[in-house]
Each structure stands twice: as structure tokens, then as C-alpha cells.
Amino acid sequence: METKVKSKALDTFKEAAETIVNPELKKWIDQGGKVVGYFCCYGPEEIITAAGLTPFRVRATGSTGTELADAYLTSINCSFCRHAFNMGLLGEYDFLEGVIWLNNCDHIRRIYDNWWRKVDTPLAHMMSLPKLQADKQVGWWREELVILKEALEKHLGVKITDDKLREAIKIHNETRRLLKQLYELRKKDKPPITGADTLAVVIASTSMPRAEFNEILKELLGELKDAEGIKDYKFRLMIVSSIMDDPKYIKLIEDLGGLVVTDSACYGTRTFWVEVDEKDKDPLGALARYYIQEKPSCPRMFRDFPQRSAHIQEMIKEFKVDGMIGLRMVFCDLWAGEFFMQEKNLDKADFPVLHMDREYLMAGTAGQVRTRVQAFMESIGGKR
Amino acid sequence: MTGRSLDDKCCQKLIQERDMLDMMVQTFTKTSTGTNLHMVPTKAFVDHHNEILRRYISGEPHITSYFCCAPEIYTAMDLPWNTFLTPAFTGAIMPTYHDEIDASGRMFRGMDLCTIIRLAAYIVEEDLVPPPTAVIAMLHPCDGINVVHQTMANNEKWKNIPVFGADPPYWADERSYEYYADELKKMVEFLEEHTGLKMDTNRLREVVKESNKQIRLWQEWNELRRAVPCPHGGAMGLEVFGEATTVHSGMPVGTAWLEDVIADAESLVKQGKGAVEKESIRVFWFDVLSLGLTLELFPWLEQEWGAVVAMEMFGYSPYTEIDTSTEDSMFKGLAKRALHEVPMIRQARGVADLFLSDIEKIVKDYKIDAVVYPGYMGHKDGSGSAGLMREKCRELGVPFMYIGMDLFDDRYTTLDELKDKFSKFFTSMGLG
Question: Taking CB atoms and an 8 Å cut-off, how many pairs form between chains A and B?
Fold first, then answer.
């Protein structure tokens, strides 16, 4: 299954998703621009942008092994972490001026402990993300944002003013709006873009200088607006997942006839479905509220399952979804619990769901994935 | 009348567990010639189970909580608490244990989720635990415990039970302790509202003072274990931890038992006697202990290799005494305990540094010959620190072994495999 329109903009995004240092990022670095990495969609990109840096969400695209990382992590640590840390040890992330972590999960938080000891990144910064979402936690997270802001200011010798923060929020909100517009096009009966290509766009949004990304995405939206849509699909599917940054995985599903039309994923709607309040006089307060209370949460947020479910239900309804595929990284406790609860709820509603465990690299498992997705689609057919 | 009875399905597992523990108590009574130090902790659990069952039937308040959620407060409120974690720890003596582990795996469509957590979620899902008046959820130190409480809140029978979770910061500093102290104060308000019980500050002061006394005794016992030969092996560590932080936390009966433990250890040290007749290897077991390990693996290590577990994660007390002068100072002290001092929580909750500094201190203080990190399949954060632990041991010149096992499922790495691993490790390191 392919996106029909031939687009240079889309090719740019696809290249960005397939590489670490994409041409736009390289250009930024060559011009003296600095890049700061972060490991999770709770990473406050806006503060990095406000410091005059490009935020880059750390991936392990292109990794082929975990030999170096395995001296520090073990086989019960998630394979994304092992591959990402391995790339750090190999020097693939030497272009980063700093990396920001938070205690989002037991695996990623330990990358911080190993990384700052073993990888020569000038700034390694850890943040304490609350697990509750009341106003008190917004206050705590705001303090953590201040600590990050001060750490960046000290390290770079810059001043991150409220005006710079407001400007950064505007740029990132524009990304969110544009991505939402892209998703709106997928609501059509004949969506003009595949799920795999959409994922590439979302990945690119975390890997390119943001203002430039926005301009290229506007170009793509213009091209897609009246483009020929995809009609040769059997079912409209939705992906629910934690980290899923491999468009080839989605392509494999789509080549079997299931067009992925939306998601609840951290390379997906959970990062852009809601915008940060631009009118708030306190930009850090607005950011704190956004990350703790407003953005669709991840399973680590305690007792927010009803809201997460509501987000999924909204997606199912708005995008006319026929079936949901849940993708969990092996050894992820948080998503094991989340899928157990989701399955119970969706079973009650007799809604087709397939939950699959996956390793970060698809290599060697494609056949298995294909078989399971085929069987799932047959079962959807039976229910129709 | 509550309409509840001991015949209710939710009571059966607790009754079975109580009866098995009671059988152990009867065995101790029949076979002991002098003081049997295992008697008090084991009987405490029998009494605890009886009290939970009684309160379930009468409708009197009881809660679900954990050793790292300031149990001193529950003692001060005279509020018994049950924990979801017990089934994993006592599993080795339960006849249906393997079936339950397997069923919990089917429930989560896989076995890679922490076994303790799977079992805890399973017993709630299958109505195998009496529903409490309220739940104090533990949100640290790991992802798994968060999962239990979220699945529980989604369970038909449990979804209307009030839940309070204190939000744990990642740091261990004054700001974090103050933040968490405030969370604990909110927890007291929650408990007062839902149990109808009141917390009296003076009573809390008495309990915390008693708990401070227990901590002092625990540390005195730690000191005695520096002796060569080591007077008590690893099994006792689990019991000391249990008395000071669970059923007898802040209670004189726990203090008296700790005094007996010290007297026993002191007497053994004076006589030059150790837990092992001919001690040749001193092991630091750096993880949780289960009854299965202490009943099977540790005795084999002692008999076959003269290896004594001279210190273990749960037997080591890094606690500091709590300032009881004001209510605020007590809450801050309890917060520090909950975040930074309780064994396992202290290492696993925040950054990995405490894994390393604890190894360094314990290896030096307890003349450790070998550090064993079991690599429990549920402790993803600990396994993510394994390489750093290995490097620390290398720096200290002490052999390190990472096993990779399920502490609560003896089929994951069988006893025979463990024996083989230990034998090869000791031999290759020239120990024993």
C-alpha cells in the first residue's frame, strides 16, 4: 500500500525517519546549531527550543546490535533502551550537546545512570516527573522545568526569557496543529496518506529543526489536500503503543490490507492532540499544566486509564476504526497492565483488538507479525 | 451484620496461607528446645491473617498497604493492613502456587511482567483476597506496582474501594522529603475519612519512638553480623525486616523480639559460633528474599560450600532515627524513610547510585567475599544497573555474579541450575 502523491516534502520526512542525522539537522549543526536529545514524549521540547537549540527525540534507527550496551544492561531490559544506549556507546550520538531524561519507566531511567557515566555527552539532565496529575503535581513539574531551564542557561551561557518560551510554545503548537491537520485528512474514506508515511512525518517532527519542519509539512499538506486517496484497503486500523518509530512495521501491516488511519501512540496523537495554552501569562506554568494534566497521558500516569480509554474511543469514532492493534515492547510492565485493562474494556464492547509484543528491531519477526495480522484481519472480517 | 462469612471465596486463600503458617508455628513449638527465633515473626503473620479475616467479616476497617508507605502511621491508628505482595513471598509453602503463577501469566498474556505483580493483580481479579475498607497504593519504586493499582481500580468488585496513592518524587533531598511528607499528611486525612479512625499525634510519637528503638536494634544486629563467623544467615534478615517494617512496626512486641535476636547473635559471637559450622565464603545477596530461597538454596549454600549470606538487601538497615519533637519533623522523617531508607525501595526508586554505594559499604563492613545480584526478572531497574554493579565490584576487587532468575518461581531458574551456577562461580573465583 502506497501514498499516491509523489512529494518531495514527504521524501524529506521519510529520509529523516530512516536516519539519525538527517540533512536538515546536519545543515543546522554545520551552521553551528546545537542539538539536545530527550528520551520520552514528556520531554519538554519547548524549553530546548527556547534555549536556541534543536530538540531531538533519541531513537535507535539503524542499530543492528546491542553488543556494547549488553555489558551494562541485561536481557530483561527493553530492546529499545539497549539499542539506543548501544548507539550512544558507539558514538552515534556524539552530535548531541546534551540529553534530557525523566523517570518515565524503569528501563529508560536506567539509561540515564549508564549514559552519563559512559557516553561523553556534555550535559546529562534527569527530571522527576510526577505520577499523579493534581495541581500539586503541576507545581512540582513547573519547578522541574525551572531547574532544567537553569541547567541549560548555565551550560550554554544563554538566558531563556518568558518571551523566548512563548515563541517556542507557538512554534511547537504550530507543529501540533499541522500534524492534526494531517490526521484530519486520514478521516476521509480514501485517506491520501498511509499510516507508515504518517509515522515518518511524526518521527521527522522530533528530529528536524522545528520551524523548518513546519514549513515542509505545510507544503506536504498542500499537496495532500486534493490528492488521490487510498481505496484499496480492507479495514481501517488504529495503533496503540509506546515507542513505535519504525514505519516499516506499519507498512507490513498495511501491505496486508489494513490501512492504519490513526493511533494513540507516543510517536502519534499523544504528543500533539492537545495544544499548550499560549495565553497563559506564565509560560512555564502553561507547559507544566500541559504535560501533567492536558496532554493524553501514558500508562505511567496513575489512574488516568479512563481518560486514556476515552482518547482511544474518540479516535475509534472519529476515524471510523474497524480494529485496534496494540504494540508492546517485551518486558514493559506498564503496557502489560494497560493492555490487560484495554482488552477487558474492548472485549465488553466486542471491538476487534490484537495485542502483540515486539522487539525494537523487526528483523526476524516479520513472518510472525504477518501471520498474526492476517489472522486478526480475518477475524475482523468475520465480525463485519 | 455484613452478610460476609469465612466461606466467602475471597477468604479462602488467606485461610489456606494462615493454616500453612500455623503449621510452621506448631512445628516450631514441638521441635524447639529453647527460644525459637522464627516463632514470633511466623505467628505474627498467623495473627495478622486472623485479624484481617475477622475485620472483613465484622466490617471493621482494614486497609491494603505496604511496608514503604509509613506503616508507623497505621500502627498509630490501630489500623491493620494487608499487602498484595504476601502471596509471592510465602508461595513456596502453598500447594496451588505454580497454578496461580501460570494463571496470572495467561491473564497478562505473558510471563515477563514481574511475578509479584502478576500474582497481586491475579488475586484481586480472581477474588482471592478480602476487599479492604480502603487502599493505600504504592507508586514507587517500580512500574509494576503502578500496574497493580491501575488494574485493581478497573476491577468490578474493587473499583469503588477508595484509593490513595502518594506521589513519589525521584530525588532524595529536602525538597522531595517535604513534598512527600505533605503527601503522607494527605494520606492520614484520607484514612480518617474512609476508616472513621483518628490519628493522634501523641500516639504517633510513641509509635515512632518505638520504631526508632527497633531501628537501633536492627543496626546493632547488623553490627553483630560483621563478626567472622557470621552469627546469623540470610534467612534471619527477612524476618528482622518483616518485624521492623510490617506487622510489628513500632510495636513493643517487635522490639522485644529484636532484643531476643540480638541476645542470640551476641551469644553466638562470644562463643565464636557462626550460622555455618565452618564458614568459608561470605556472600552479599543484593536483592529480595523469598521463603523458597531461605528454605532451599541458602541451607544448601551453607552445607555444600560453607557459604553464609552475611548480608542481604532486606537485612541491611540504612535507616536514620526520626526526630519526634514535632508533627512536621515526624512526617518528614517518615517521608525520608519511605523514599530513601526502606530496603529495595531506596535502591530502586531513584537514580542507581545507591546500588553502588551500598555495595561498597557492605563489602567493606561485612568482609564480603562475593556479591550476588540475582537479577530478578521483575526488577528491570536493577538489571539496568547490573553492569555498573559489576564495575563497582571489580573496583573493590570482589567477585560479582549476576544470575538472571525469578525469585518467586522456582521453575524459571531451577534449584539445580542455581546450585550449578553457584558451584561454578565459587570454583572459578577460587572461593570455598
Answer: 149
**Inter-chain touch B387–A114, beta carbons under 8 Å:** yes
Which chain A residues are within 8 Å of B114, Cβ to Cβ? 333
The answer to whether the CB atoms of B384 and A331 lie below 8 A apart is no
pTM of the entire structure?
0.96
Chain B positions in Cβ-Cβ contact with residue A107 (cut-off 8 Å): 380-381, 384
ipTM value > 0.90: yes
In the prediction, which pLDDT does A384 show?
57
**Whether pLDDT at B27 is above 90:** no
Contact B155, B124 (CB under 8 A): yes
Q: Is the pLDDT of residue B210 over 90?
A: yes
Residue of A nearest to B142 (CA): A106
B chain contacts of residue A126, beta-carbon cutoff 8 Å = 170, 351
Give Cα separations from B193 to A302, A311, B181 (angstroms): 21, 32, 19
| Residue among B84, B112, B150 with most chain A CBs within 10 A, to mutate | B150
CB contact under 8 A, B143 and A106: yes
Task: Tell me whether residues A113 and B384 touch, CB distance under 8 A.
Answer: yes
Q: Which of B380, B392, B395 to mutate to test the interface with A (most CBs of A within 10 A)?
A: B380
Domain CATH code at residue A364? 3.40.50.11900
B-chain residue closest to A127, CA distance: B170
Domain limits for position A200:
1-384
What domain count does chain A have?
Answer: 1
B23 Cβ contact list (under 8 Å, min separation 6): none
What's the gap in Å between the CA of A85 and the closest CA on chain B?
Answer: 11
Low-confidence ranges of chain A (pLDDT < 50): none
Query: In which residue are the cell numbers 490490507 written?
Result: A257
Q: What secondary structure, in 3-state letters, does chain B show? A: CCCCCCCCHHHHHHHHHHHHHHHHHHHHHHHCCCCCCCHHHHHHHHHHHHHHHHHHHHCCCCEECCCCCCHHHHHHCCCCEECCCHHHHCHHHCCCHHHHHHHHHHHCCCCCCCHHHHHHHHHHHCCCCCCCCEEEECCCCCHHHHHHHHHHHCCCCCCCCCEEECCCCCCCCHHHHHHHHHHHHHHHHHHHHHHCCCCCHHHHHHHHHHHHHHHHHHHHHHHHCCCCCCCCCHHHHHHHHHHHHCCCCCCHHHHHHHHHHHHHHHHHHHHCCCCCCCCCEEEEECCCCCHHHHHHHHHHHHHHHCEEEEEECCCCCCCCCCCCCCHHHHHHHHHHHHHHHCCCHHHHCCCCHHHHHHHHHHHHHCCCCEEEECCECCCHHHHCCHHHHHHHHHHHCCCEEECCECCCCCCCCCHHHHHHHHHHHHHHCCCC
Closest chain B residue to A136, measured at CA: B179
Instruction: Tell me the per-residue pLDDT of A140-191, one tens digit each, with 9 for 90 and over.
Output: 999 999 999 999 999 999 999 999 999 999 999 999 999 999 999 999 999 9
| pLDDT tens digits for range A192-225 | 999 999 999 999 999 999 999 999 999 999 999 9
Are A334 and B147 an interchain contact pair (Cβ–Cβ within 8 Å)? yes
Predicted confidence at residue B59, as pLDDT, reads 96
- CB-based burial, A76-93: b 16+ in 10 Å, e otherwise: bbbbbbbbbbbbbbeebb
Q: What is the pLDDT of residues B44-70, one digit of tens each?
A: 999 999 999 999 999 999 999 999 999
Closest CA to A338 of B121, B348, B86: B121
A83/chain B closest Cα distance in angstroms: 13
Cβ-based contacts of A342 with chain B (< 8 Å) = none
pLDDT digits (tens, 9 = 90+) for B351-405: 999 999 999 999 999 999 999 999 999 999 999 999 999 999 999 999 999 999 9
